[in-house]
Each structure stands twice: as structure tokens, then as C-alpha cells.
Amino acid sequence: MGRRLLLLGPPGAGKGTQALVVCRALGIPHVSTGAMLREHVEEGTDLGRMAKEIMDTGDLVSDAIVVAMVAERLSRDDAVCGWLLDGFPRNASQADALDGILGDGGIDTVVLVDASEEEILARVLARGRSDDTAETTRTRLAVYREQTAPLIELYEQRGLVRRVDGVGAIPEVLCRIVEVLAQ
Ligand code: ADP
Q: How far away, in angstroms, is 168 Cα from ligand 1 center?
């Protein structure tokens, strides 16, 4: 049935970059809510215009929007043999919705890519995306701390979490992810 993976960790911990390589290696789709939202922004859809305002502050786009996007994406043919979720769920209500979408036999593994807040600020500011200002980054870190980090415990209780040190060069972190996925 393939692999059903969830990548969790603070914003700017390098998840997106790592996720792409892991997905290519495993032949599974990369389901990134951030990337899907940015596509809408680029295409100038109504949703994109609405989302951009929120993304530029660092807050979360509404649950209804991202849940609908994920449900639709996971229902496509190429998601039958597994997927990697990146940037979703980001709060308890999204985690509940995901359980509802997946039903029995949900996620196999949650890879937690960890990095300190200092490390993250430095990395994000070097990246230079339109939502990458110091203020936005602080908001995103606060949102992570308050809403997303509590999900670690939820998935820990289910015995799904594998922790990876996210500090280091991209290939090093990638090797750590590959190692925990091979276990
Ligand atoms: P990063 O990993 O750098 O934080 P993402 O690409 O995952 O970036 O997300 C960028 C922005 O898109 C977030 O700050 C948020 O505004 C929005 N976003 C992405 N995923 C979600 C989600 N699951 N729920 C709500 N908003 C989201």
C-alpha cells in the first residue's frame, strides 16, 4: 500500500527541500499545502488573492480551505500508493480532519525535523520569499509553537514519531531522514 508519511517541524527547518528528494526516491507525491497555496497565488485565483494576504502575515489560512485542498489531492489516482504530507496538519482541527479523510490505516510515520528558533530565523531570512520578513517569521514560529507543536504529542501517543535533527547541511539531514524511514 506504499507509504503514508507526514513531515512535521518548524517553518524554515528545510522540510520542503527534504520532502522533494524523499518523494522522488520513494516515487510518492509531495503534498505540500504551502506549495499548493503558492500555486494559487501565482495563478491569481480568488483563493490565491485571499491566501496571500494571510500568508504574508504568517498566520494560518482557514482550515476549510486547506482541508478541502488536501482531501482533493489525496483522492487522485497518483496518491493510491502513498504520499508525503508537508505543512499539513498545522493545528488540532486539521489533524482531526485528516483522521476523517484517512479513516482506518492512517499515517505510517511522522518524521519530525527539529531545529532551534535561532537557526530557523537565520535560514528563513536568507531565503527571501515574500512572506520571509523577520516579523512574519516570528509570527510563523509563534503559530508553530502554539498550534502545530502540540500535534507532536498526539502522534507520539500513537507511536508514530521519528525525530531527526534538522541542523546541518541538506544532504546530512536527508541521510538522517532516509535512515529513520528505513527502520
Ligand atoms: P514554511 O514551511 O516555510 O512555513 P509553508 O510553505 O508550509 O512554509 O507555508 C507557507 C504559508 O502558507 C504558511 O505560513 C500559512 O500561511 C500557509 N499554509 C500552509 N499550509 C497551511 C495549513 N496547513 N494551514 C493553514 N495555512 C497554511
A: 23
